[in-house]
Design brief:
There is one protein chain. With about 270 residues, this protein is an alpha/beta fold. Helices cover about 40% and strands about 10% of the residues. Helix 7 packs across helix 8. The protein is globular and about 55 Å long. The two termini are about 25 Å apart. The structure holds iron/sulfur cluster (SF4). The site of iron/sulfur cluster (SF4) has 13 residues, from helix 4.
Length: about 270
């Protein structure tokens, strides 16, 4: 049976990688697959961690960790950011918030840029509905409600090795630290509408150019929607509820607006709501 692990690039995935290297994951996975939605789309810290820490660690321990990308029919790489900014693009792949509605919209990005990319690789390497590939997903006990919400392809059988060991996110931190690896940032696209306000404030403080690009992306999407006579959409739930742009919700050098906030989760652990 083909066995693989959907490597999200965040804390849970890295802890799982360490556990496999130590022979403590309960099940070894032959291939560790990181679906990169685009070097221009993933947070640069995630890409950096992959190359500087995860890959050297995997190589040192004989684990096959590889980066996959979405390739179009023309043989060129398709990234989520270029898809979002195409002038002729009519659909929005990321889960933006509609005006007056706090709930995130369709989340086609994880399906198209992660699950299908990994699914294609598994098919090309022999997985079939009759002989599905085992796919490990790094969900920890504090995210248990996300288990079984991930879309499954017919040639996949999804398992949750961290849940089987009842590990929490804090356990994952300890496992990574004990392996002398730095703790990775929460992995996600820098423009992900599922970020909570703290994530946005961190981006504005630590990566001000990326924050500005996220603000511009929101504007670009809405300029295009205006041309199509459609209502605006927002990158934050608060923007959607109060018709505020990202720049207004997270003002430069000032305190955040006083909204309660717990976020909706991102692609950190390789799970998916689609
Ligand atoms: S991090 Fe957010 S925007 Fe990026 S693929 Fe995942 S859900 Fe989509």
């Amino acid at each position: 049976m083909l066995t693989s692990f959907s490597f999200g690039g965040g804390v849970q995935s890295v802890a799982a990688l360490v556990l496999q290297a130590q022979g403590k994951l309960g099940q070894d996975f032959d291939h560790w697959l990181f679906a990169n939605v685009g070097d221009d789309s993933e947070h640069p810290g995630t890409i950096r961690y992959f190359h500087e820490h995860a890959m050297p660690y995997a190589q040192k321990h004989g684990i096959d960790l590889r980066m996959l990308r979405r390739i179009g029919r023309d043989g060129q790489e398709k990234t989520l950011y270029t898809q979002l900014t195409r002038p002729e693009s009519r659909s929005i792949e990321i889960p933006v918030r509609m005006q007056g509605n706090a709930a995130p919209g369709n989340r086609n990005c994880t399906g198209t840029f992660k699950i299908e990319v990994i699914g294609k690789w598994l098919r090309e390497h022999g997985a079939t509905p009759a002989d599905p590939a085992l796919v490990g997903v790094g969900i920890s006990l504090d995210e248990i409600e996300r288990a079984n919400t991930r879309r499954r392809l017919p040639h996949e059988q999804v398992v949750y090795p961290l849940l089987d060991q009842r590990l929490r996110r804090t356990d994952c931190h300890r496992i990574i630290r004990d392996a002398n690896l730095p703790i990775p940032i929460k992995s996600s696209c820098w423009f992900c509408p599922l970020h909570n306000l703290e994530n946005w404030a961190d981006l504005q403080r630590d990566e001000p150019q990326l924050f500005e690009r996220a603000c511009s992306l929101e504007t670009t999407i809405n300029d295009r929607r205006r041309g199509l006579d459609r209502d605006p959409v927002y990158l934050t739930r608060y923007g959607a509820a109060h018709s505020l742009t990202l720049r207004q919700v997270v003002p430069a050098g000032r305190d955040l607006l006083p909204f309660a906030d717990d976020g909706d989760g991102t692609c950190d652990s390789g799970w998916c709501m689609t």
